[in-house]
Amino acid sequence: MKIWNSYGSEHSANIVIVGTFDNVTEAQKAKQIIDNLTDIFQKDIEKNNANSLNGYEKFSEEMLEYIGKQGTFDITHYNVTGLLSDVAIKQEFNKISIASKDFNFQIFLNIMLQNGAKIEIENR
Q1: From CA 122, how far away is CA 15, in angstroms rounded?
Q2: Are 20 and 92 in contact (CB under 8 A)?
Q3: E strands, 27-123, where?
Q4: Which residues lie closer than 8 Å to 18 by C-beta, 6 or more apart?
Q5: With a threshold of 0.90, does the pTM exceed it?
Q6: Cα separation of 34 and 27, whole Å?
């Protein structure tokens, strides 16, 4: 009898999302929105002594105001947690690339699409 031992990494996504914009200004705007939402969410988590998945049940007034200004109304309590996942975000000219090992990347897609990006998703 043989016993099969196997190890895999099926638990992580290991993907790269590339958003290509019509111009550098649109890419910069999308990157700035991602950065601002991340800062606001991080402050909310620290203020409420919550972690990114538990205890964050209500958006702060600052978050609601910012979401309203940007018109990003499809942000949910779940996908906003993607902002704190282990991602590497890089903007070069009119492209933003986001490398992630997490499956919770919907918020990045939403922001880039709402700012005119064409999206490619690669599995690495």
Answers
A1: 6
A2: no
A3: 87-92, 95-100, 118-123
A4: 95, 96, 97, 98, 119, 120, 121, 122
A5: no
A6: 11
Cα 16 to Cα 33, 103, 107, 115, 120, distances in angstroms: 19, 11, 14, 18, 8
64's tokens: 């609601």
pLDDT tens-digit profile of 69-101?
988 888 888 888 888 888 999 999 999 999 998
Distance CA 40, CA 85 (A): 15
Contact 94, 25 (CB under 8 A): no
Tokens 């979401």, located at residue: 67
